[in-house]
Amino acid sequence: MQATNLPREDCDRSMEEYPEELRTPPISLVSLVGCPEHHSTISKFLHSEQPPINTLALPDFSKISIFSRKLKDPLDAGGHPPGGILKRDWLLKHRTRIPAVAAALFSAEQVTGDPAQWQQVCTDLDNIKVVRGRNMKFVVVLVQKNASDDLSEDHVNALRKRAELDSKHVIVFLQNDATELRQSLKRLAGLFAELCNTYYRDEGRRIKIRMERKNVGHAELIIRYCYKARSFCFSLFVPPFSFECQVAAYAEFRRDWIEALRYYEDAYNTNLEIIGITRRLPAMQRLTEIKAVAEQLHFKLSTLLLQGGKVTEAVAWFQKHVKNYKKLVGAPEVTFLHWEWFSRQYLVFAELLERNAEAIPDSHPSQVASSECCLIEWELQPAYYYGVLTFLTIICSLSDAEYARFVIAEGQRFQDLYEIIALFRRSSESFNSLHALRTAAYGNQRMAREYFSAGDWRNAKQLLEGVADLYRREGWVTLLWEALGYLRECSRNLGSLKDFVHCSIEMAALPIFSDSRLEAPDVKREYGPAGPPTLSQRETIQQEIFSVCKGHISDQSIELIKADDQPLILDIDLVSPLRMAFLTSVTFHNQTIKPGETTYITVSILSQLPHPVEIDQLEIQFNQSNCNFKIVSGEQEFYVVPKPETRDVRIESTPSLIVTNNNWLRMAFEIGSELLALWYTYILHGLGQSGKLECMSVIVMIGRHLTLCCRAESPASLEGLPLWKFENVMENFPTKDPVLSFSGQKYIQVEEPDPLVDLTLSAPSPALVGENFIVPVFVVSKGHAIHSAELKINLVDARGGGMLMSPRDTESFSLDSHHVELLSVSGVNDDSSTSSDDIRKIQQSFGVVSVPFIDIGQAWSCQLTIKWNSPKSIMLYVSLGYVPVPTETNFLRVNVHRSLQIEGKIPFTIAHRFMMPFRREPLLLTKIKASTPADQKMQLPVDETSILIVSARNCSEIPLRLISVSIEPGDNPVAECSCTIMQSGSASTGPVVIVPGEEFKQVFAVIPQVDSPNLDIGEILVKWVRVSDLKQNENSVVITKQFLPRVFVEKPLLVASLDCPAHAVLGVPFSFFVKVQNKTSLLQEIKYSVGDSQSFVFTGPHSNSSFILPKSELVISYKLVPVASGLQNLPSVSLISVRYSTRMDPSLAATAVFVYPADPRFHFGKNSKLLSASGELENLDFKLVQGVSD
Amino acid sequence: MIVCVAVVGHQNNPLYLQSFTEADDALKLHHIVHCSLDVIEERVNNPKKSGPTLNETFLGLLYPTENYKVYGYLTNTKVKFILVTTDLEVRDADVRSFFRRFHAAYVDAVSNPFHVPGKKINSKTFAARVSSIVKTFGSGAA
């Protein structure tokens, strides 16, 4: 094993150490003599046969004597004790020197030639016959050039007789023709194979018989013969060896695997039995010999079994083998020999398994499952054996004392080391490929230990780091402790202070897997250089490492501290194992802060180090470096090295900076004064209106050398320590306030400062549609001077939807599409609108105006004029943006927002009604037709007076002063001349206050002058003011308009009117006329009738009919005498126009008349005159109409 | 003789490990128990190979090392029990019986209201009970 640098190859060779004949199945051997020119052809052909046959070619017959020059057959040795168990080269001999068949080649010329040649042939045959005494089979081959050559039967017979052979053992070999040659070769090969088989079987049988016949006093012989027998089935181990062995070997030669197997098993068992029986050799050698034999036999067995695909049996055999020989250690001085041998068993078996891998794992699951010996799958994997093997190798190699006794040189020790490492590596690789990571890691760990003991720190460290990572992940602290112990020593030896400190701190902070036995002394070897994982050991490590960091140099660590004493910086991030030692949590007590305010920050440190740790200085770092601050212990005078970059870092002091085991060290500090500066920084960098202040890290300084840069963690997202979470330790909170412990964050939102400005909106009352509604805006500075401010006004539909214009509504309000409009903003400095920086943009629902500079304490106001076009509820948003401090940029802007909801209401609901004059009834053609109800237009008679009553009801919540109600012709100029509208009654008495809910009525006389089906009369104008506004502003008169619907004007056909006095006096007769005017140019016939009345007696026709000439009038007169007083109905008159078949009945109201019991007297003030009841009825018409309609 | 018993949590972290050997090979037992997790993992991930042990808590012989035999047991909560013995001939029934009693002891231990699930088992009662179970191992007492 020289390949110290190539461990893989080194290992691969272990099986190769076995001789070829042992590793491969035996091959039959045939000897060719004579005619050397054909030997190569025949050899080649035989070798390519299946199974192959080896040839031993002898050019001429003189060499044949080598077969005869053999030792006396040991089988004949009888009672002599054998010299050993197996003969070393027995098998080789049968493979290379002792053929099963000898073939003599003679050319046809030799046989048929002259007598001298024949003589020679005879001599050669005689020589061979001597050799044949060995039971060797013999064949004569006659080489013929071609089939036509004359080779007489006599010649062949003569030759056969001379050679004493059966005729079938004399064959003819044709050499020239290609097909003939091939046939000849095949024939030859067939014959050879048959003879070989016979030979080996005979040999095997011979040995078997001998085994049975002879005294079997020498067990060794039995083994040998078994071996032979099986090998003949093939191999040969000659002298003092067991029969069984030989029989088995012969069987193997014959490729009779089952028999071979049986004999090998016998041989193996016999070999096992002779342990302790045989006294042939000195004990030590004897054992070695037995083991060597067992090894070979077992190897053969395994090979045969594995090649036969019997993996399970092979493994079972191996287990048996191991069990048998494991305890045969032998003399104590040579223990290593045993372990070497023993480990070789594993190695060889593993390699065998690997070679036959395709036959192994998954292909025979059923076999495994059904196996009675309960094999584990793993035992079918080579990796398992490598694993065990490495362990065995260690047993042997680490026993230095034994080695010393045998003067094992250091170099050899090294070789062993690399062998072990190579085996470990192989084992690890195999396990890795099986995804058995833990087992692979164990191999790596042991490999690292070998490297460690060899002083190869780098390799050891590299391996251990991977191993430690696995243990760390799964929380196997004891194993981690061991790995770290090695790592620590590696780092120490490599001079890597950083790694050394890292490992030490981690070890000191490791939890201990409690096992009371660990405290036992003298466990150094088991636990590696770190000793057992105990609390005291942790404390020792911590003390050592911190004394190093504080500059106290101990003997052990002296080489670590370099002269340049560079400070050591360790980063502790979220996945670092050193979180156990220093877990830092930072919480702001508030979630948001505004510049100028202050809040508190709690810095907490948790350590699992067993001893209290005294921290010299803490530095809290934020994402804004000007917020950074340092914390020093109050009791300690800590020198701060003034560095140029550390301008003026705030230094806080705290009573104590000592972190005790598993106890949060909590410190709260005020923070805030720097935040305004931070905020400015953000704004100046254009990062937005607010910023986030986040604590990045907490830097722990211990001594002059050690700086730990810990990533700050929020308590809300604080993850437990991975290794300590399985421990039963008290858990306490990083902050005193438990709420903060669950929700606290390491960052705080810095918001813009509160505005120190009052912005007030006030709306006096609900807005009324049509008026210019004024909303005063007041801006009062209360601590901020207002620079370059602007006021933004926004009108938004209160019901949502944003814009005050919906698509549906735009149709009906096409002219003024906005329901609500912002008309203007009037400020105190309206006149300054010329200045260049003044912003003034007014749109219907949006406006921006600039606000002048307002100093602290001053006020400013403006008025928004908003007009409602329809009743809507809106939200008025007003925001004031200003800069409290004059800067060059405009980023530093403070905004104040106010909003106000304003209802828009309709002031008056305007209604109107058309009527005919009292007791006058025109007959209109359209009415007679009573056409489609869809056309609901009002019909008016042309040139007749119609009455229009307009009513305005105050539907708002405030009293309004109504100035006038009028009807204007509107935009249509035709309307003016087509219709006369007169306001009836006296002129307006001036503004009237209409309280909410009150209704105001105005009567108009409408006389259409044009006969038109679609006459535009005009629109109603209601002028009003708010009661409060009247005195202040005459301009505030609001005109509410409403269009009158168009009317249908047509000529009346007939007009019927009743004519009677306004009142009557009981018993006094009066006249009653019914007048019918014919407005048409046709003769009209009227039928009329008058019903009786209890209140009146009358004269005149009860019913009659008469004709009315065109454009003339029919007057029917009655004389009535009232007989009852009070409001009485006149006798009912019924008129029927015959032409139109229409009844024209006056309404009941029109026939009512009041009957006084006596002639009444009326007084109307000073200037009044007595109105007699019979006077001037005409003039009273309108008033009466009014009264009636109420 | 049982040399070691262990309880391994569902994150493959050790919850309890007790060795019963005078030799100072406690660490090696840690390694053996840890390595046996590989076998358990393979068994659990490839239930086909396990054949009859499907849906059974007892995992049987995990693997024999050079000196030990390792047996495994997997509870429904994915807690593993591991037994390391030096006996070469172990009766299957003995191991099953051992694990059954061990499981009972474990259930009692973690039912303690003061025990936090998933943490190490430090109960002295549990340790004592385990010791007694270990002592009677193989004696036929079930």
TrEMBL record, chain A:
Residues 1-20 are annotated as: Disordered. Coiled coil: none annotated. Residues 286-386, 398-509 form the Trafficking protein particle complex subunit domain. It comes from the Eukaryota. Residues 7-20 have a biased composition (Basic and acidic residues). InterPro entries: TPC11. This is Trafficking protein particle complex subunit 11 domain-containing protein. The lineage of its organism: Eukaryota, Viridiplantae, Streptophyta, Embryophyta, Tracheophyta.
UniProtKB/TrEMBL annotation, chain B:
One of its GO terms (biological process) is endoplasmic reticulum to Golgi vesicle-mediated transport. It comes from the Eukaryota. SUPFAM superfamilies: SNARE-like. GO terms for cellular component: cytoplasm. It holds the Pfam family Sedlin_N. Belongs to the TRAPP small subunits family. Sedlin subfamily. This is Trafficking protein particle complex subunit 2-like protein. It comes from Apostasia shenzhenica. The lineage of its organism: Eukaryota, Viridiplantae, Streptophyta, Embryophyta, Tracheophyta.
